[in-house]
Amino acid sequence: MTSEIFLGGGGAEYGVKQGLSLKYANRHGLIAGATGTGKTVTLQILAEGFSEAGVPVFLSDVKGDLSGLAKAGSPEHKLHAPFEKRAGIIGFEDFDYASFPVTFWDLFGDQGHPVRTTVSEMGPLLLSRLLDLTEAQEGILNIAFRLADEEGLPLLDLKDLQALLVWIGQNAKSLSLRYGNVSASSIGAIQRSLLVLDNQGGTNLFGEPALELADLMRTGADGKGHINILASDKLMSAPGLYATFLLWLLSELFEELPEVGDPDKPKLVFFFDEAHLLFDDAPKALVNKVEQVARLIRSKGVGVYFITQNPADVPEDILGQLGNRIQHALRAFTAKDRKELRMASETYRENPRFDTEEAIREVGVGEAVTSMLQKKGIPGIVERTLIRPPSSQLGPITKAERAAVMAASEMSGKYDAPLDRKSAFEILAKRAEEAAAQAAKAEEAAEEETRPALREFNSARRYQGTRVTRSTSRASTGRRGATFGEAMTKMVVKELTGTTGRRMVRGILGGLFKGR
């Protein structure tokens, strides 16, 4: 089995052939370039190379083009015709068309198997990033997670978190004494953000059965690594959800995988397309988290490759850890563009045969300026490289072909049906039901306590003398007086049968009639 992935190059114009050493593939990498310069094809051939070497791959398909990895290319395909000549130019004698084992995933469950995690696994830091919370609101979220642990309330889906926040709001006074100010406005802001997330389809992300990382790290019977493709064309309409999910997945790999040191090849390679979405307006704590993961996860055997339009999209501390670089063309139309182009060129080891800045500006579609790690992890000299053709189909497969791949997958049926087991929502609902039952019972007991006093009050009469009948006018007056007295009695009894009245009976009249 080969020890490197052939990238391209060769010929008088392009110099030596370029390849990515599997031994240093877990030292991370960068694929950059303007729109339409060939980044997707480069990602495709790298995924093929890793799969051929028995390394599982996870990548996001932002435009829907990468589903072609599941089908062999063809010389009759209009997009493959130009690549036939390219294979001869770069001396790619072993070029052949082939398909690769692919597993399709989709947060919405439409174009792949559903992929989920739980609210607890996401954690307060990433969830705060996803909801775009303020520092005060993030503090409330941390209180919620702490209470969930202390009270034994599993947070599995969004309704669990929403129910817990309601409970926190109802008990804000007592909780504030213990954890600091718990304001109703902050809780309300979090609930509104959860509603927005729900409208974006975030409900599909949280729940069970949760994704098992082992299902992303499979190899087929033929020894090829599975290529896991996340359908992201629809997901990109919610860029915060997209970036947070991929960062969560990267963090889970970092937390769960064991240390393996420097293996001969990676255990998994992770491609993060549209990487700028991860860092745009990201808080410092989150950027630090990404930097920590990028620095340490290579010892777990995981290689991370960022795909973006400009290297400047990636923070400098993280960019410095990306040893394998494939730079497609950058366009320099403004002063800012020219500055970024110059900065990008200065990150490479110079090649005396050409000017790196000029080469980055002039390389055509399907060409790149590359620098791969060599022995002892030393960056190689920058080279102009004509990227090799892919073996799988360029462009997407049909819906019917995708459905056939999903039906034949080992993951078929494992994640399709959601599971809703007892969690915080159900537990808190039961507690509320029990509290309501106890309150009703106490109310009934209070009514029983006041009934004897009410009966005695109703039977009491202030005057029992014989009625004297006189003139018609006086009788009429007497009747009016009796009617007024009856009305007053009814009004008093009505008041006494209410909550306030029952308290009065227990407090005053109860003592009045006690001695009888």
Written description of the protein model:
It is a single chain. With 516 residues, the protein is α/β, with parallel strands linked by helices. It has 3 domains: 4-116 and 211-408, P-loop containing nucleotide triphosphate hydrolases (Rossmann fold, 3-Layer(aba) Sandwich); 125-202, no CATH class; 432-512, no CATH class. 46% of the residues lie in helices and 11% in strands. It has 18 helices and 12 strands. It has helices spanning 11-14, 39-52, 81-89, 119-131, 135-151, 158-170, 172-179, 184-199, 239-256, 276-279, 284-296, 316-319, 335-345, 356-362, 399-408, 424-459, 472-496, 499-512; strands at 4-9, 17-21, 29-32, 57-61, 102-106, 113-114, 227-231, 268-272, 302-308, 324-327, 367-371, 383-386. Helix 4 runs antiparallel to helix 9, helix 6 (158-170) runs antiparallel to helix 8 (184-199) and helix 13 packs across helix 14. It starts with a strand and ends with a helix. Mean pLDDT is 85; it is low at 470-481 and 499-516.
Name its key features.
two-stranded antiparallel ribbon; 516 residues; 11% strand; alpha/beta; Rossmann fold; 10-stranded mixed sheet
Number of domains: 3
CATH architectural group of the largest domain: 3-Layer(aba) Sandwich
- Strands, total number: 12
Q: Which spans of ≥5 residues are poorly predicted at pLDDT below 50?
A: 470-481, 499-516
Mean pLDDT: 85
What is the molecular shape?
elongated
**Estimated helix fraction:** 40-55%
CATH superfamily of the largest domain: P-loop containing nucleotide triphosphate hydrolases
Count helical runs.
18
Range of strand content: 5-15%
Distance between the termini: 104 Å
Largest sheet, in brief, is: 10 strands, mixed
Q: What's the helix-strand series?
A: EHEEHEHEEHHHHHEHEHHEHEHHEEHHHH
Cα-atom Rg, whole angstroms?
A: 36 Å
* CATH C-level category of the largest domain: Alpha Beta
